[in-house]
Specification:
By secondary structure, this protein is of the alpha/beta class. The chain is about 45% helix and about 15% strand. The protein has a single domain, classed as NAD(P)-binding Rossmann-like Domain (Rossmann fold), CATH 3.40.50. The chain has eight helices and seven strands; from the N terminus they run E-H-E-H-E-H-E-H-E-H-E-H-H-H-E. About 45% of the residues are buried.
């Protein structure tokens, strides 16, 4: 059996109707997992799930819309997953928010709270929902999609970076508490990836050329570049890896 075989596993991926989350869901399904596509809009989730089922067979994916800002909706996400597929073996906390660009001097309290709630507190809620079954089974994998922004300051996305740095510590603490139960909890820190979420950072051709010229690999990332790390961390290949933050950034931080 391949170290990367996920046959029989049930995976919930938040923010998986597009971008990095979608790429991760597609690759988890390609490696045998049954995936739950989740974002705020049911219609877009349905479309992604249908495409995965068409490629990998009916039953490979279901769609359950949920907002990460609403605890009750996340509880419903897990309840509906349990009813249709069974308990969650793999949790990918990918969805996040960044409603403000500019100096932290100018951010409104409501905007700052939204960043912290959606990027930290929601991950805490999701882990609380996933962990009881994982501890019972003495097995499970939780992955938080953070950012290299959590490793450095920024004049424009400071609050976002604060939240992503906090995610690293959230992972470490939960890993300490749950390693004895066979549950592995890790983070992935992508660099600049070509997604709608980061569009403002790459859609300007001159800015993109400048950024890519500074990268050792001379290109920004594609969503699929992050999916491979997620498959690794979700699989038996990473059975002794926990509490870690894996940087996938084309060399940006070196």
């Amino acid at each position: 059996m391949s170290l990367f075989d996920l046959t029989g596993k049930v995976a919930v991926v938040t923010g998986s109707s597009r971008g990095i989350g979608k790429a991760i869901a597609e690759q988890l399904a390609a490696h045998g997992a049954k995936v739950v596509i989740s974002s705020r809009t049911q219609e877009t989730c349905d479309e992604v799930a249908a495409a995965i089922n068409a490629e990998h067979g009916e039953g490979s994916a279901i769609a359950v819309a949920a907002s990460i800002s609403d605890k009750a909706q996340l509880q419903d996400l897990f309840s509906r997953t349990q009813e249709r597929l069974g308990p969650v073996d793999i949790l990918i906390c990918n969805a996040a928010s960044n409603p403000y660009y500019g100096s932290m001097d100018g951010i409104e309290d409501e905007q700052f709270r939204k960043v912290l709630d959606n990027n930290i507190l929601s991950n805490h809620w999701l882990m609380q929902l996933a962990l009881p079954h994982m501890r019972e089974q003495q097995d499970g994998a939780i992955i938080v999609i953070s950012s290299i922004g959590g490793l450095r300051g920024s004049p424009t996305i400071g609050a976002y970076n604060v939240s992503k740095a906090a995610d690293f510590q959230l992972v470490r603490n939960y890993a300490v508490e749950n390693g004895q139960h066979g549950v592995r909890i890790n983070a992935i820190a992508p660099g600049l990836v070509k997604t709608d979420f980061a569009k403002a950072l790459w859609e300007n051709p001159e800015a993109r050329k400048r950024v890519e010229g500074q990268l050792p690999m001379r290109r920004i990332g594609e969503p699929e570049d992050i999916a491979g790390a997620a498959v690794y961390l979700a699989s038996a290949a990473a059975k002794w890896t926990t509490g870690q933050m894996i940087v996938v950034d084309g060399g940006a931080t070196i």
